[in-house]
Amino acid sequence: MIKEGVLIGDRYEIMGRIGTGGMADVYKGRDHKLNRYVALKVLKREFREDELFVKKFQSEAQAAAGLMHPNIVNVYDVGEDRGLYFMVMELVEGITLKEYIQKKVRLTPKEVISITLQVCAGIEAAHNNGIIHRDIKPQNIMISKEGKVKVTDFGIAKATTSNTISTNAMGSVHYTSPEQARGGFSDIRSDIYSLGITMFEMITGELPFDGETTVSIAIKHLQEDIAAPSELVPDIPYSLERIILKCTQKSSDRRYQNMGELISDLKRSLVDPEGDFVTIAPFANIADTVAITPDELERIQKEAAYDDEYDGYNDEDYDDNDEYDEYDEEDDEYDEYDDEDYEKGKRGSKKKDSEVNPKMAKLMKILTAVVAAIIVFILVFTVGKATGLLKFNSKNVETTDNKKVETPNFEGKTLEEAKALAKKKGLTLEVVKEATSTKYEKGIVSKQMTGKGTSVKKGTKIQVWVSTGLEGEEITIPDVSGMSEEEAKETLIAKGFKKANISVEQKQSDSVDTGLVISTTPEADAKAAEDTKITIYVSTGAGKVTVPNLVGKSQEEAESALSEAGLNGSASEEYSDTEAGKVISQEIDSGEKVDKGTTVSYVVSKGKKPEEKVTMPPVVGVYQSRAESLLRAAGLSVGKVTSEYSDTDAEGVVISASFNEGDKLNPGTVVNLVVSKGAKPSDPETPTTPDQGNGNSSTQ
Q1: How far are the Cα atoms of 162, 554, 572, 584, 585 from residue 581, in angstroms, in the given order?
Q2: pLDDT tens for residues 318-359?
Q3: CA of 415: how far to CAs of 190, 352, 442, 447, in Å?
Q4: Catalytic residue among 25, 77, 81, 135
Q5: pTM higher than 0.85, yes or no?
Q6: 295 counts as catalytic
Q7: Which CATH number does 614-678 carry?
Q8: What does CATH list as the number for 475-539?
Q9: pLDDT digits over 527-540, tens only?
């Protein structure tokens, strides 16, 4: 574990560990260059000397680095520092989808579709860049505090230039596709299967396949049909159930063939929840169940053992499952084996034909006729199922419409909900009257002519009344903020407002994602009549703007340029050779496109860094040689040295200096000294010559 405060790559400061995976730890870090928080994935110590693991780690980085999308946890940087191999990623503050499901138990259909659409958008971007994720699961889907859904952990992702890849990377066994479990080809449809399992868990709160061991779960993915979600959630919209069932077909040819097809049906499901528009291709032929070979079972056990080893990491914010290997596809052994058996059977039959007695021959003819009849029945049965002539549900086969069913309670349900319920029971609805109601809002079934619990034949038409609105009451405008445009319209119409009176306007927003509703006019919770005109304001996002060039501008000029571009500025100062007051660098390069309102940090020059001052040492009262040493040690220069007599200072002692002790001076300043010559000598007395009588005297 890396200690807090350690600087990696001379840029990223470790702030604490936030997750761990199979072969890497994830830390929260701070990017000192761009002044932002990031997530650093660092290869574990035990793998750093293993070239294979290092190569796998670098492969992950290469696969993920080319992906930049709002619904993908983006990779910013990758490198190596002092033997530490690291990857720098976007830090997502939030929880995993797994944690969200555990918290809510079951998600609403609208939540399921909204989350899935965002996941689809991210995965579609990966697919378009030749990347297959291969480990789609709720643990690898992050939901930020702002509600943004992001796909993370491309630990077993594989870049490819073809439509398919061969792999034995199983991913997490609860979500793995049949072809991954068997070790066959996996392509974009494998991600669609795993996403279908994830959708099943979101809507039901349960996993479709479970078992005591990971091996048993993998085998269920291969051999058992998924249960209809309606068995666990009876009120699931019909279209959503069909979408999930199509995603999770055993044969990849019967699933959605790309994310675009899935996205189209998901959007349509929002508008027509009970619509029967999801088509699942019929089986191409009838084939016997293929048993799992001992070799395949052994491979699944090995893959499952790996999955068990690292499954404990799944609930971390940044869980890893990085163990993946290249898979070399082996030739199919079944064809050769079957052909040989067939040829042996033919050779043996020629030998035995002559040995069959007449009675046995007659019996064989009868048995042959019976077998032929059974085969014809199976063919008719299969063709009828494929063409829709015979319809099935999860429990039985419907061969007649003469069965009796109990009439459900339709009152209090929307007309669409009532029609869907009737369809599930094999009944139809007929609206015979529309009128105001004292109990139910507009669009709600207010009365049924055949009472609840009445036994009727399948196909019976049940007559109902539908409310046109509450009598004498205004309608409360619902809060549709955060919904899509279509969701908002449907919600308002369901409340009783007229479709013709609902209009839409586009509006920029710094807080609401593109395509989602910001607000309405009149506002939510206001009371209004059914014919009130309502305007829905849909976000176009914050809008992208171009970062201007700030280098060389004054701080005032830089702030003005940023303001004009719709950006904010954050200035700091540094010493430099550039003229003081001029911008010397900026955090985001000029010309780059960023969201409107983004803060751009920049650095302003303080001019050349002044030299540091030095302190004048105590030189008065010390001998000249000592004083000069003190001056040089302090970074000062010795200047003119003069001498003076002093009655108090010994010869050679400094009497005074040109600067006082403690003065702050620039390095190299010249200091003049005055040095004592000692005490001034006294003049000797002059002898006097005696007067010679002429009045003159002389001294010698």
Answers
A1: 56, 6, 11, 9, 12
A2: 333 333 233 233 333 333 333 333 333 333 433 334 344 455
A3: 37, 70, 10, 11
A4: 135
A5: no
A6: no
A7: 3.30.10.20
A8: 3.30.10.20
A9: 887 778 999 999 88
